[in-house]
Every structure is written in C-alpha cells, then in structure tokens.
Write a structure and sequence with these properties.
The complex is a heterodimer of chains A (604) and B (366). Chain A is mainly α. In chain A, 54% of the residues lie in helices and 1% in strands. The longest helix of chain B is centred in the C-terminal third of the chain and has 17 residues, at 341-357.
C-alpha cells in the first residue's frame, strides 16, 4: 500500500521560537557557581549572540526533517490556497472600487465626469464577474483536496510497521532522541553549529513537554488522533503568539532562518554536514532508509513559513455612503432585499440553514457546526454565482433603466429565480464586457430609479458576502490544519486546545470516523496502559509546558552535556503517555494492553 | 471524554418549537445577533444579554439600552452614536452586520423614526453567554436639527442577510432592535413639569393599546441612576396624563393606565404633567410609560422613560459602558479630550442659567 508521507510536525513554529527564548533566559539566570558550568554557559551565550539565527534554525530541526520526508502535498495545497486567497482579496478590493464609482457617479449624475465614471465602473463590474467566474473551479478543487486532509498521513507505529522502516521524520521523534541532541552538541565545532545544536536541544525538550500538553488536550498522541493533533498544535501556537506579543511573525521567522541567496535559500553547509554527521553517529544507517534530502526540507521550511503569513483579512466593506444609506434604510418597514439564498447556510454552506425555523444561539462547547463537514467553503461559489447573475441582469437592464422602463430580468432576479432562463443562468460564463455608453441625461434618469438603489444595496450585500467568504476560508484552512487559526483562536473548536480538561484518563484509541469527529474530544475506548498522571493541572494553558521544557529537561540535559555526563533517557517526542515518556517499542499497537517495551539507550 | 460542564444557561436552549442542533445533524452556522441591553451579569452567575430573553424581562429598563452610546445631545449640534453588537450564533463565521441608527421625538411605539446613520461592523461569534464580549461599531455622527425637541429617542437595529431584523421597530420584543430613550430634567418644587410625547402604532394595521405609566423604583431605578453616576431618589413623583388639548386623561397618581386605539402607523400626542418634590443634589427619580398591545396577551410594544434630577443633575455624565475586555472600542472624542477653557466657561454659564430658570436639561438624548 502506498502511503502519502507528511504531517510529522509536533510543536509548531511559534512554540519552538518561544521555547528557545525561554531556555536562553533560563540558562542566563541559572545560579551556576561551578567554573566548568559558568565557562560553558559563557560559550553558549557567545554562540547565541553571534549566531542566534542558527539557533532558531536548530529549534526547527524537526520541521526540516518533516518537510524533507514529505511528498510535498501539504506545501502544494497551501501554495494553491495562498494563491486563491490572494485572488479573492484582489477581487474584493476591485469590488470596493466599483462600488465607490457607482455610488459617486449616481449620487451626482449631472456632474460632467459622472457618466464616464459610471461607464468605467460598469465595465469593471463585468470584468470583476468574469474573474470571479473563472475562480470557481479552482475553489472547488482546493475544497475537495483539503477536505480529506490527505497531507496528514498515518503514523507507521499505528500501522504496526517495524521501526527500521519508519521515515526519518518519525524516526527522529521516537528513537534515540536524546542521543541525537548530544551528538549534535559534541560534533559542533564553531559558533554557528554550536548555536544550531543548542537550538536542536531546545527543540527536543519543547517537543517532550509540548507533546505531553497536546496529548492532554487532544485525548491521545499524534499517532492516534492526527487530525485533531494538528489543529491542536496550531491552536497552541496561535495562543502563544497572542500571549507573547514580542514573538516574531512567521514571515519574520522565515527571514531569520533564511540563508543563502535571496532567490535560493540554502541550508548552511556547516549545519548540513553537522546533521549528517550526527545521524551517522546516532543511528546504524545500514538498518534505515537513506537519510532524506535536508536541503529540500530546508527550502520547504522557508517557503512554508512565508506562505503561512499570507492569509490576512482586508478591512470589512463600508456601508453605502450616507446619501444611499438614508434611502436604503430610511424606512425600517421596507429594508433592502438581499440576493443571498436563504435555504443554504452561512456563506452558502449547504444544510446550514435548512433544518431550523429560526436562528439559535450557539453552545460554548464544540459541536456539529465546528465539524469538517460543517465548515466548507461552498459559500464562495454561491457568492460567485450571485455576482454573475447580478452583473448579467445589470447589463441587460441598464438600457431600460436609462429609459425609465422596468426590467423583468432584474425583477425576477430579486424573486430568486436564479436558475431560470430569465434572468440569465449564472452558470453560463459571462460574456465580454460591454461599455453601456450611458450619457449624462440617461444617468440622471437612471439615478432616481428604485432599481439603481437596489443595485447599490445588492453590491454592498455581495461585498459583505465576499468578505465573509474570505473569513470562512481562513476558518476552513485552519480547521483542516493547513494554517493557524490566528484571530479565530477564541472559537470553541480552537479554544478547547488551550486549556487542559479536568482530570481524565488518556490516551484514547483512534476514533472510527476521524474526519467527521476530530473537532470533538474522542469518545473511543482507552488505550492501555494509560497515562499514569498528568503533568498539567486542570485548565493549564499552553505556556505551562514552556516551564517544564526549560527547567525539567533542557537545563539538566545541557548541564550533563557541559559536564560530559550521560545518564539520561531518550524521551519520546510524541509523549504517548505524558511528559518524559521514554522511547518505546511494541509488538502490535492493537493489543490490549499494548505491550510497551521501554528501549535501552542504544536501541534504535 | 471530559464531562461538559453543567451550564445554568442550558435552559435557554428550550426555545418553543425549535430544535437544538447539538452534535448531530447539519451544522447551523448562521449568526444570532443582538444589541445587548445588559452587558454584565444582572446577578452573579447570570449570562450577559445575548438576545434570547425577548420580550425583555420586566426588570430590564427597555428604554435605556446599555449597548447604545451617545455623546451629550443638543439640538442643532453634532451627535455621536456608537452601538454594541453581539453575535452568539452557533457557527464559526464572522458576520458583516449592518447597524442602522434612527432618532425620533419622545415616542412610545415607533411608527416612522428618522434615519440617523448606518455602518457595517464585523461580528465574530461569541458562543459563551457568560463572556461579556461585544463589538462596537465605528462612531456615527450626524446633526439633529435645531428644531428638534430637547429630548429625543435613539433607536438602533442590527441586521444581516441571514439574521434579519424585523420590519417593526420593536426594541422590547426583537433582539435586533434597541432603544435609548432618556429624558432628564431638574425637579421644580413649585410648578409641574410638562413632558409632551407621542404614542404611535408601529403596525400596518389598526390596533388597540393600553398605556401604563408608573414611577420607577427599586433595582431598575438604581441601574438608571448608576448609568448617570447619580443616586436613586426616595421621592415619589406624581403625574397626570393629559391629551393634546390639555384635557386630563388620568387623575394625579403615581401609577395610571389608559386605553386607546390607533390606525396604521398613526400617532397621538399626549403630555405628562409631573410633580416632584425638591430633589437633593445628584439624585434622580424616574417615570416609565409602557405601551401594550391589547390583543396579544398584553405584549409590550414600546416604552418611554423620563428621568428627573436634582439641581446638580446637569453635572452628571453618561458613563460609556465598556465591559468588553478584548474588543477595542472606538474612542469618543468628546469624552477623551480634556475639557477646554471654553467648555468649562460654557458649562458654568449653562449651569447658572438652568438653576435660574429651572428648565429642563438637554444633555441627554431621550
């Protein structure tokens, strides 16, 4: 069976960046008196001062490997999403300009410049409809591609694959973890590589503590709940970014870890050599697949960071200007009609509004509205169809309006006969733009008509729908683990991952239909043996693991490395059964209880 | 699975005739908008106003919505208004809602309010009813004509194409609508105060109504006083309702009612004659008039509040409620800047003039 490979990420970019900073501060503040430790600390601080960006890159070493072993599906989808989102924002901005021109020209029809402004806006509106129509197929393709989360592949342990066949992304997280960090430190010979090795130490410890936090809030480890784990990881990162405003943005992190030329980011050769040497020193490579292309992984890492920074919402649409707003809303008994289809849900998602007779308030706990299926982006397509229909009716009616005549296309459109021959079928591609050639007298005649008022109201309505579609896209991508939730972090579906639930046993076994239910805490049976105790109190927030990482793992390990002492364990970076769970093997993950065998330090 | 906390708010799900979505079935992602009448729990453990309690509970002052903020009002001057909005819908999508503000002469039941301004506002869903989180619109500014009375009512609505406001201005029964309706006056021990107002039929059909007027007391008066940074008075005003021609409709009393019928969107003028003993400084008393629709089980249709203050009432300012911890509220320029010498001079002049004439104050819309 061919398996797509990807999605091996543990702690996210923000958490790694913050953990490194916290470790640096903890090391600086440690009350060392032993001369050897003080000297080693001075060396580390000098290295970090000279090569802080190498340290940051080291903190992301797990991501370099994850990208290196990936088949590139996730990055390709994210790139596609970013491109489409950018086009959507451009369309949104174009409509803002069209609205401004229509409202301005029609508010002053006698102005000599108004007719030309109106005609230009009419052409631009048609161009806008064409571009909106052209984007439909790509939106559908993206939606269908993302909806099944194919870029987050199953863990080989969960498929009972022998460890020797594991890809390098998973191997580095579950085998000889402590040894790899020690070898990096031992083999680093200058400030950049020593700084990188220090970052890798931070990365390891942050994963050991951070994954334990994730296991608590997810209800199990990454291998059992990979979709839920992914959303949790991004939610934790977003929470930390908000809590620590001094954290750099992902775009800044991308710049900081970018080496090589402007066009071709290149993994620093010394770092590449260090990684390969450390792999050889840590593992018997004759028993493993060949090490991955780390340059490829590094290039993808930089690109990934840059793409994640692209999803910015534009300002919301302004209400129509006062002269039009007063006409549209002056009589509350006669509000402007909406072209929005009422029997589909918010932003047009199917089934969103058909079941209930009236709007209802939501629940503070995640529910069906938070599921993958309830968070699609059909609304964009629906908005596009409405736009196309509106514009086609507008083009057909403009001549009649100029003659002060009624237009059946327009009237029928307002009656929601969207799919009938009259008005035009929005599924038909819009024709080439036509200049209506409206003159000043015609514009004056048109300006006072009810239909023009409706047009202005409809364009405002659609403008709002496009903004909502962009917002919806952000949620869709975040819920499917492609992007961070960002400003959406307070929504229950994300917020659930930023507070440890009340005392409960975990890990839970995988659920039977993860795509339909990963937004919910798993209700599947427990996997035995369960986590004995939790390292986190109820309601603990993500920053709780930062302290554990620095004080309980990183500083003791750094101290041992400085002293040349080796009596630590290899901790599983997936923390399958809570904090500082050692690397382990089993006969079959499906046994109950799982036959856990803690690995000796040299076992791989 | 960690148990879901038992929520004392769970009972609000039992909306008659409607089905709670839960975790099964299709997701409902539409907004659930409201302009909040109370932005902090009324009692400990109580949710904030998310719009489920409509008609408004009896202990909520229906003409004093806390979600409508206004600068001091003076006919002919610019008035600044902002409105708080909450979306408690079940989905995850931010709604681009439209907020429209109207004003009207003192009216009970709004037939044809006058357009003041409209704005858009992005309202993300806040699904925890115990979190006092609201979004405030940008500030709307317009000039109320100099010919307008010293007392006006502000009406605001919030609407969205998937959660539309009703077409009847119904602040008491429709969560999309809200009213800020405050009249302040200095008490005059010698002569009754005279408050003209309009009773209007907001419906397109002829209807019968009952108007009930009473002196406000207890917690409701405390809340009104708190909003004005004043203390509730123990004085018990007496009033008499008179019709357009000055003919008494009720006796002098502290509680009265009368019935009337009005045609479609028709109005009728009345006046309230009011006697209040001299009030101590910084104390207020209030009278509330509520219009009920006779046929629909006495459903409230509209209300009006008249607040009477002591001699120093003019120094009282409307506190701009800002209960939200996370959402940035727009600044109110007149509140944020330090008073200029001109302001202080005008204030003193106005104060003297008012003390001398004991005329009604004009600082607050209502």
């Amino acid at each position: 069976m061919e398996i797509l490979v990807g999605g091996h990420l543990l702690i996210d970019y923000y958490a790694h960046t913050l953990a490194l900073d916290e470790l640096r501060k903890a090391l600086a503040a440690a009350p060392f008196t032993d001369a050897a430790l003080v000297s080693a600390r001075n060396q580390t601080m000098t290295d970090l001062s000279l090569a802080g960006d190498h340290a940051l890159l080291g903190a992301l070493v797990d991501h370099i490997f994850a990208h290196a072993v990936s088949d590139g599906t996730e990055l390709a989808m994210l790139g596609h999403a970013s491109h489409l989102y950018s086009r959507g924002v451009t369309l949104y901005q174009q409509l803002a300009a069209v609205r401004g021109d229509f409202e301005g020209a029609l508010a002053a029809p006698a102005n000599p410049a108004s007719a030309a402004r109106f005609n230009s806006a009419a052409v631009n509106l048609q161009v806008f409809a064409q571009e909106a129509y052209a984007i439909q197929a790509e939106v559908t393709k993206l939606r269908d591609g993302v909806a099944l989360l194919p870029y987050i592949s199953p863990h080989p342990r969960q498929m009972d694959q022998p460890a020797d066949s594991w890809d390098w992304g998973n191997r580095l997280l579950g085998r000889r973890t402590d040894a790899f960090v020690r070898n990096l430190a031992r083999l680093a010979k200058n400030s950049p590589t020593r700084a990188f090795a220090f970052g890798a130490l931070s990365s390891y410890c942050a994963n050991v503590a951070g994954s334990a936090y994730l296991g608590n809030v997810v209800g199990g480890p990454r291998r059992s709940h990979r979709f839920r784990d992914r959303v949790a990881r991004n939610s934790v990162g977003t929470w930390l970014a908000r809590q620590y405003p001094s954290l750099p943005t992902l775009g800044t992190i991308a710049q900081n870890v970018r080496f090589g030329t402007a066009k071709n980011p290149t993994l620093p050769p010394g770092v590449g050599q260090l990684l390969n040497d450390a792999l050889k020193a840590t593992f018997d490579l004759s028993r493993t697949p060949p090490p991955p292309d780390l340059q490829l992984g590094y290039g993808r890492l930089v690109q990934h960071l840059q793409l994640l920074d692209d999803f910015v919402l534009p300002p919301i649409p302004l209400a129509p200007s006062d002269v039009w707003a007063a006409q549209l809303y002056g009589d509350p008994a006669s509000p402007p009609p909406s072209l929005r289809v009422q029997d589909t849900g918010f932003s047009g998602d199917p089934d969103g509004g058909v079941t209930y007779t009236g709007n209802l308030p939501g629940d503070s706990q995640p529910g069906q509205s938070d599921s993958s299926g309830g968070s699609t982006i059909c609304g964009i397509i629906m908005a596009i169809l409405i736009i196309v229909d509106l514009v086609q009716a507008f083009v057909q009616c403009i001549v009649q309006w100029a003659k002060k005549q009624t237009c059946t296309f327009w009237d029928n459109m307002l009656l929601k006969k969207l799919w009938e021959k009259d008005p035009p079928d929005p599924r038909t591609p819009p024709g080439p733009p036509e200049d209506p050639g409206t003159n000043s007298a015609q514009l004056t005649a048109m300006a006072a008509s009810d239909e023009v008022l409706q047009l202005i109201g409809a364009l405002y309505d659609i403008h709002g729908q496009i903004w909502e579609a962009l917002d919806r896209t952000n949620h869709f991508l975040a819920l499917h683990g492609l992007t961070y939730p960002g400003y959406l972090i307070d929504l229950p579906v994300y917020k659930q991952f930023t507070s440890v639930p009340a005392s409960t046993e975990w890990p839970h076994r995988p659920v039977t239909d993860p795509i339909s239910s990963y937004h919910l805490y798993p209700s599947s049976p427990l996997e035995h043996p369960t986590a004995k105790t939790s390292s986190f109190t109820a309601s603990a927030t993500p920053d709780a693991f930062l302290t554990l990482s620095a004080s309980e793992v990183a500083l003791p390990l750094w101290r041992q490395i400085a002293y040349g002492v080796t009596d630590t364990q290899n901790f599983d970076m997936d923390a399958d059964r809570d904090f500082r769970y050692p690397c382990w093997a089993d006969k079959s993950i499906n046994f109950d209880p799982v036959n856990v065998q803690v690995l000796a330090y040299g076992d791989q | 699975m960690p148990p879901k906390p038992s929520s004392p708010f769970a009972n609000i799900r039992n909306v008659p005739g409607e089905k709670w979505p839960g975790d099964k079935g299709p997701g409902d992602t539409r907004p659930f908008l409201c302009i909040p009448y109370w932005e902090a729990p009324r009692v400990p453990g109580d949710p904030v106003d998310i719009g489920v309690f409509r008609p408004l509970p009896g202990n909520v002052t229906s003409w004093d919505c806390h979600g409508i903020h206004a600068s001091p009002y003076k006919p002919g001057n610019a008035l600044q208004v902002s409105v708080d909005v909450r979306n408690s819908g079940p989905g995850n999508a931010t709604a681009v809602a439209t907020v429209v503000v109207y004003w009207a002469n003192p009216t009970i039941g709004f037939a044809k309010p006058t357009f003041f301004g409209a704005t858009s506002v992005a309202v993300p869903p806040f699904r925890d009813p115990f979190q006092p989180i609201f979004v405030t619109t940008p500030t709307l500014t317009a000039v109320i004509p100099a010919t307008a009375p010293n007392h006006i009512c502000l009406l605001a609505l919030v609407t969205h194409s998937l959660d539309k406001a009703g077409t009847v201005a119904d602040p008491m029964g429709d969560r999309h609508w809200a009213q800020r309706n405050l009249t302040a006056a200095s008490a005059n021990a010698k002569q009754p105060l005279n408050f003209p107002f309009l009773i209007a039929n907001p419906f397109a059909t002829e209807e019968k109504f009952e108007l009930r007027i009473h002196v406000l007391g207890g917690p409701a008066l405390e809340l009104v006083a708190l909003r004005m940074r004043a203390e509730p008075s123990e004085a018990w005003p007496h009033f008499q309702l008179v019709d357009e021609r000055g003919k008494p409709v009720t006796d002098w009393a502290s509680e009265a009612s009368t019935g009337l019928a009005l045609g479609s969107h028709q109005g009728r003028k009345y006046s309230l004659m009011l006697k209040v003993g001299p009030l101590p400084s910084h104390q207020v008393a209030a009278i509330e008039a509520v219009l009920y629709l006779t046929k629909e089980r006495q459903a409230p249709v509209g209300s009006l509040g008249i607040v009477v203050g002591g001699p120093d009432i003019e120094a009282l300012e409307e506190p701009l409620t800002q209960t939200d911890k996370d959402v940035q509220y727009p600044k109110h320029p007149k509140k944020d800047r330090a008073p200029s010498a001109t302001d202080l001079s005008e204030d003193k002049t106005r104060k003297k003039k008012r003390r001398a004439t004991n005329r009604r104050l004009d600082r607050h819309p209502g």
